[in-house]
Amino acid sequence: MKNHLNDKRFRLKPVALGIALVSVFGVAQAKSLTEASTLLETVGDPNESKFMKDIGLKIGGWANAGITYNAASPDNNFNGPVTFGDRSGEFQLNQLNIFAQRAVAAEGDAWDFGGRVDAMFGTDAIFTQAYGVPALDVNTGLPLNRNHWDLNMLGSNDNRFYDIALPQAYAELYAPIGNGLNIKAGHFYTPIGYETVPAPDNFFYSHAYTMQYGEPFTHTGVMGNYTVDKNWAVMGGATTGSATGGWDGGFDKQLGNWGGLAGATWTSDDKDTSANISGTYGATSEHSNQAWGLYSIVLKHNITAKTHLVLQHDHGYANGVLLSGAAKDSEWYGLNSHLTYDIKDNLTAGVRAEWFRDQNGFRVCSPGRVAAATNGAGNSYAIGGQANNSTCNAASYYAVTAGVNWKPMKWLNIRPNVRYDWVDGKVAAGGQYRPFGNAKQDQFLFSTDFNVNF
Amino acid sequence: MKIKLLITLILTVVLLDGCGGTNPHPMDMSQAVQSASSKADHEALAEHYEAAAAEMQVKVDEHKKLLAQYQAKSYLYGRQAEDFKAHCEGLINAYEKAVEANLSMAKMHRQM
Question: I need a labelling partner for A329 at 20 to 30 A (CA). Which of A98, A306, A441, B58 fits?
Answer without folding.
Answer: A441
